[in-house]
Amino acid sequence: MNAKKDLGQNFLVDNVVIEKITNEINATKNDLIIEIGPGYGALTSILKKTEANIIAYEIDTDLKIYLSKYEDNLTKIIYQDFLKSNIKEDIKNIKYDKLFIIGNLPYYITTPIIEKITKEELIFEKLVIMVQKEVADRFVAINKTKDYGYITLYLKYYYDIKRLMNVSKNSFKPVPKVESTVLLFLQRKDKPNVDKEKYFSFLKECFKQKRKTLRNNVSSKDFEIIKDLLKTSGLNENIRAEEINEDLFIKIVNNI
Hints:
- This protein is α/β, with parallel strands linked by helices.
- It has helices at 15-23, 42-47, 64-67, 87-91, 110-119, 133-139, 150-158, 196-206, 214-217, 220-232, 246-253; strands at 11-12, 32-36, 53-57, 75-78, 99-104, 126-132, 159-167, 172-173, 180-187.
- The strands form 2 sheets. A 7-stranded mixed beta sheet has the order 4-3-2-5-6-9-7.
- Helix 3 (64-67) links the parallel strand 3 (53-57) and strand 4.
- The radius of gyration is 21 Å and the shape is elongated.
């Protein structure tokens, strides 16, 4: 079957990479695995060896001919857009100890998928996903780097994220134009003490025009308070948002 460009299909065919990714999912028969975009079932076939319950979401019904052989009383393939699914409803009748989420995500909808998982407030043991390397760079960026921005801090609020490995584009068929990265997400236990909605709204304001200084992105009223906090932290008041770390952003939001 030819890959469908409109679905962002690039099938993972490198067995070494497949083994490294699935080894991160240390599930047992008492657990549940959610797989996003199983494709031909390269990961699914290995994950089944855990004897855990598996629910896989696949938007392309043409792949039924390949995936049907994996379905049984423990593995269910749901042919539906993951972004439109009701995950809690889909798993409500499954008893499990730990939840694992895994996927080789279509690059064009990576962020919406992660945002959906976050908003669903699923409690999971691990989230292991493969994304475009440039996107991964933004997810794990640190301040004072060009990749650091709103999405970095949004995800940092919820997760501890680790880069597991970079993956060559030659590990896929068809070969994509970009390199990939496998990331491990662990749910953060020490979430910042801050009004979440106020915090995210302020971050969007600060990063709406990244090349402008913080002074030019926020209201003048707020900046009068902010510049004193910057001074206390030994920072110039003409600083850009990308130079400010999470701790200081939290302190600013808690004072404005």
